[in-house]
Amino acid sequence: MPTTKFDKESIKTSILGKLQRYNGRTLADATQQQIYYAVASTVRDQIMQKWVAYREQDKNYQGKRLYYLSVEFLTGRSAYCNMLNLCSSSAYREALEELGLDIKKVLWEEPEPGLGNGGLGRLAACFLDSLSSLSMPAVGCTIRYEYGLFRQRLIEGQQVEMPDNWLENGNVWEVPAPEDTCEVHFGGWVEERHEDGRMKFIHHDYRTVEAVPYDMPVAGYDCETVNSLRMWRARSPKTLDFKSFNSGEYMKAMQEQELAAVISKVLYPEDNHYEGKELRLKQHYFFTSATLQYALKDFKRRFGNQFHLLPEKMTIHINDTHPGLAIPELMRLLIDEEGLGWDEASWIVQRTIAYTNHTVMSEALEKWPEQMMQNLVPRIYMILQEINRRVCADLAEKYQNGSDPRIARQAVIAYGMVHMANLCVAMSYSVNGVSQLHGEILKKDTFHDYYQVMPEKFSAITNGITHRRWLMSCNPQLTDLICDAIGDQWVREPEELKALLPYRDDAAFRAAFAEVKRQNKAYFSDVLFKRQGMRVDPDFMFDVQAKRLHEYKRQLLNALHILVLYNRIMDDPNFTMQPRVFIFGAKASPAYYMAKQIIRLILAISRLIDRSPRAKKMLKVVFLENYDVSGAEALIPAADLSEQLSTAGKEASGTGNMKFMMNGALTIGTMDGANIEIHNAVGPDNIYIFGMRTDTVRDLQQTGGYSPMHVYETNAELRRALTQIIDGTLMPENPAALQDIYHNLLFSDPYFVLKDFGSYSMAQRRTEQDYRDQEKWVKMAISNTAASGFFSSDRTIWEYNDRIWRIR
Ligand code: 26Q
Hints:
This protein is of the alpha/beta class and 808 residues long.
């Protein structure tokens, strides 16, 4: 196999050569975009070389393989992280510098694949990076959406959605694998035939959709492993059909083509919210079926028909219930295609599939109308019915009562709906939560009945983030500073970051740490200027809440507090405070009315403050447009304070919280999700905890004993801020515009915003005092970075491997 070196000189030669061959340009005449493609395809050449070698050795691999199925993989840009994982970032940096290019500017040209909404999709991407870096053989499997998550614009104080055509200029990182194209069948009907002493199921009159895979290499850090992310694209099997063309059915033929391709057209923009759209169910079955056919083909290549070995040789991990049809699909393939009996197939499935739950919000639990399931995937529906029959029979036996009310709660099909979570719990060998608290809530509430009858399946493994992207790549200056102080062992063993802790007391180190933060703030200001023509002052404290917009995440708590601060400034000419910029990054689902109203409110507060010459000396609100992975990479290293305000018990884990702490931001947050574990890791002196705990929230919910009006009546500052939402202070041109927020808070407040306001406001007072004491603040910030190693996804993946997958 020919190998090429990738040192500085050959990188330069490669870039110039590509510009000449692909574009017929010299460096001086090339556009930024052409330069980006020349650089990225040089990186790709380097990965391809490793990929070929890895695949060669993989051909003889006899061990277990992991298939990680997720309807979202929010990878973010690849070029820089690939350079880093290839241990070539300095070579590229120097090469570009010698060519007179600004590496950051060049890499900013890369289109970001927005193939995910938020936490669940980003977690999948972090996991792939860790799997490769820990040399575990794994394939990520998903849909190759033609349009990723919408691009957000803020126009006239409101969110406006624009299509994200990320493939417009091609994607250097993907390689099509047409040889693995397979068929997925929809609709039709199933004939049951008795033949050779057994039942045969024959699917008739189905519509075929072809699944074409595109692979993206995922190179591990400083190792030989190059796994892939397999993305399936849907297309119609018929190229233009001459018969219909001649019989004047040209339009119909074209439409059919369109109908198949629409399956992989666009990512649904809902986060933590379920909507029973048929197209979405099609998407789920489409990529799940294609993936399982491919996995089984690979298994048969390695082990022939020894299907009893399947659980030993592969784990199908499903990222939430969305790929849950993997369960009946694997049954179908084993029974209908491979001729196994039900019991044998079911034995295999129950040892092969593992499931992670990501949310306890009831509106996010996936349910499908039986009718829809039956029409769309009739054979799968039959299998679901049989699974349900057996699950219910087993439970009836366990409860020694066929009409025990628990059976209906645990059934896979009940009251005309297919309950995906029940299916996944009943049929997987592992059910896990994403933080310790979340794991407990699953056992106590969400899956309480199942926990009673099969406790051995349940576990909790706290989420993590890849420190390669979320520290080394996004914060190179802090990375260098850490390496200068404690060496680079932490790069392989991130928990070694704890060696930083003694540097809290080193004044020179503290000064250097603070200087890095300052430079990151200045850099963010430049990015903000480029993105939306706005600047922020690095002397201000950067207080950041960046995550999807959702009522349970309580951006409202933050917004109301800002209004209160504004009033304090305006009421008292002698009032002063530490100048602070509140930065929001948040997309709202296009159909989520309240979330969009909250964006309007935040933008209105921002305008109000900007109109006051006095207020704006101390206070600023910035809404970062189109918050995406690249935005996060610029924003998080610049943050002083990280806002993690979810109502206790609602945020399964959170992962943004971990990214902020790793980059030396302090957390103001509730005792929810992974915040609790961050609190344990840094100690109570290095975090600002406020608000009700889960048990109090539960009590209040159960007794119905909460009255937001009572809070309103007893807190004058809060009352004033609430009134300003509707009295024309914020929306002089249309004072009623935000009245639904006001009414919702005052008469319902399901997420206890008003209830927790006082406690939040007090915690914010403490952040203010502490920030003014810079020595104290920087010490706390260092403690956070030092304690963040536990939250590397390398640790998470070790735990998954140890407790669930056992790959090697
Ligand atoms: C399901 C069916 C039909 C339509 C939509 C959905 C759907 C889509 C997205 C349901 C849920 C989601 C997203 C959930 C999510 O992102 N959860 C987050 O997962 C993170 C990783 O574990 C956690 O850190 C977050 O706490 C959790 O909110």
